[in-house]
Amino acid sequence: MLKLFTIGDSISQGFMSGAAARTDLCYSTLLANLFGIADYKYPDWPEGGLPVNIEELFRLLEKDYGTDIDTLEWTLAFAATIPRFLNKVEAFYERDAYAADKPYPNKAIQYFHNVAVRGFNVSDAWLIDGAYCQRKIQESGTKDGFYAAPNESLVRTALKVLNPSLKKEHNTKSQLDWLDYHVQNGGVENVIIWLGANNALGTIVDLSINYSPGKGKTDTLSRDEILKYGWNLWHPTDFAADYKVLLDKIDAALAGTSTKVFLATVPLVTIAPLAKGVGETFEVKIPDDDGKDDIVTYFKYYTYFPFNEAYAFKTGINLSFTQALHVDNCIRAYNKTIKSLLTERNNQQPGRYHLVDMADMLDKLAFKRNNGAPCYDFPPYFSFKYPTPNTKYYHADTQGNLKQGGIFSLDGVHPTAIAHGLIAWEFLKVMKQANVPGADPDGLDWKAIFASDRLYQEPIKIMHEVYDNTHLAEWVLRFAKGFHREETKREREE
Questions:
Q1: 317: closest CA among 227, 413, 171, 208?
Q2: Which of 6, 292, 324, 337 fits as disulfide partner to 192, beta carbons 3.0 to 4.6 Å?
Q3: In whole angstroms, what is the distance from residue 335 CA to residue 357 CA?
Q4: Domain map of the chain by residue range?
Q5: Is 125 exposed, middle or buried (0-12, 13-18, 19+ CB in 10 A)?
Q6: Residue 343: its H or E element
Q7: SS in 3 state form for 152-193?
Q8: Under 8 Å CB-to-CB from 423, ≥6 apart: which residues?
Q9: What's the first-to-final CA gap in the chain, in angstroms?
């Protein structure tokens, strides 16, 4: 029987610094290691991963040009070094070993136990399969460009995850179909489901809101129809419709089993440092689950790091305080839906579903939202670690000293290896309460987790260039967006 199966999006895939790259450092891999699962299968992502690994690129620039890059060197970097790096990644994933028409290099692998895919929203768990991915890649074709990343990087990623062998009999399997497959072929003890962030994350990527209609019928749409509308924020009614279908399909797959399902809540996306709060602050009363009011700090504008209030006002590239609050309130409604549906399903089959409140974790970790005094209780290992990781955007000086950050990777959205350790710790606490054998929160090897986090152990010495060089910051933002919004826009236009 399979001990652990994971369904999720970029976080559960180990997406870091702009690329699907480090599934080996992902929280579910940490869980599998702790449980002693020797054959827990997950994909590797060579050449930095898809679409572009910003950390790999920054380290290349630092190696070639040193810690202070002058104007002439930047001209050379943009004309030669950066395009050469991008071309290598593009060739690898479009034409070479990881191209869409080539099976996964390890031909013995026909499936993975972690089928998380970056960019997936709730309904993608049943809407996207290998056949869909192949069709979208074929329709798009290959388009070389001077600053081109692999085209259709989201579905290229999904294809490698959902049908690594490219066998015809697996080409119609979605994430949920693979769950059903493993239940029917030996059974599954524990399932992680963490979806929903991408039903709102686009608001921070775009710094704008394109709201779904709120009719509770989005669950009836195809993925092509959803892309055509280009929503980046699901109305809570639409989210509820999608999440109900998700749990219906999970219940159908697990009928007659004692499988435990661990549902994670959706973190508030405005905490991610990709969106920097600037200007006047406002304290807002937000009711918690106990009916009490939490006081939450919001900013006048949310714009891209490292820009300031003047940039946000002058360019109009921002979310206003009221927009940011609205996005967060939608996510709060999502999480009420998840908790309500969990209670409802457990009344039908007690002990099936267990809540892992990742939204609460990130709320407590948030640096600015808690006025510089996060109230999260770190594991004891963190007590004398200096510097203590925080949720501010990553920064280091030219001597290689970490100045801030450590929770979010360089794309300002996805967790670092250390943060994945914290996520695993939160899952283990709930799994222990659910009597999962081997679920010991104190069993995590924090020394190894910290050692695996290169951003923490070997801080990038050219980070000041991102803060000092507006053109570089804007270029980084383009890749931090992961191209998925560009792909959505292109499909809308077509």
A1: 208
A2: 6
A3: 9
A4: 2-493
A5: buried
A6: helix 321-348
A7: CHHHHHHHHHHCCCCCHHHCCCCHHHHHHHHHHCCCEEEEEE
A8: 11, 27, 358, 361, 415
A9: 45
Confidence (pLDDT) at 143:
63
Give me the residue label for tokens 């690329």: 19
pLDDT digits (tens, 9 = 90+) for 33-82: 999 999 999 999 999 999 999 999 999 999 999 999 888 898 899 899 99
Residue 4 dihedral angles phi and psi, to the nearest 5°: -150, 135
**Per the structure block, which two tokens stand in for 331?**
């996510």
Q: In whole angstroms, give the CA distance from residue 233 to residue 402.
A: 34
Nearest Cα to 433, choosing from 345, 337, 357, 344? 357
> 52, exposed or middle or buried, with CB in 10 Å at 0-12, 13-18, 19+?
buried
**CA-to-CA dists, residue 123 to 174, 217, 431, 443, 484, angstroms:** 11, 12, 26, 35, 17
- Cβ atoms of 304 and 277 closer than 8 Å: no
The one-letter amino acid at 190 = N
Q: Cα separation of 476 and 293, whole Å?
A: 38
**Is there a contact between 189 and 259 (Cβ–Cβ < 8 Å)?**
yes
Distance CA 54, CA 483 (A): 13
| pTM of the complete model | 0.95
User: What does residue 430 show for φ and ψ, rounded to 5 degrees?
Assistant: -70, -40
Give which of 429, 407, 456, 378 is closest to 31, Cα–Cα. 429
Type of residue numbered 485: R
Is the pLDDT at 490 greater than 60? The verdict is no
Whether omega for the bond prior to residue 389 falls within 30 degrees of 0, making it cis, is: no
- Residues paired with 6 in a beta bridge: 114, 192
What is d(CA 78, CA 461) in angstroms, rounded to the nearest whole number?
Answer: 19
Would the pLDDT of 442 be above 70? yes
Report the 10 Å Cβ neighbour count for 455.
23
pLDDT tens, position by position, 316-365? 889 999 999 999 999 999 999 999 999 999 999 999 999 999 999 999 99
Q: Where are the alpha helices (DSSP H) in 66-217?
A: 71-76, 82-94, 124-127, 130-140, 153-162, 175-184, 202-206
SS3 284: strand
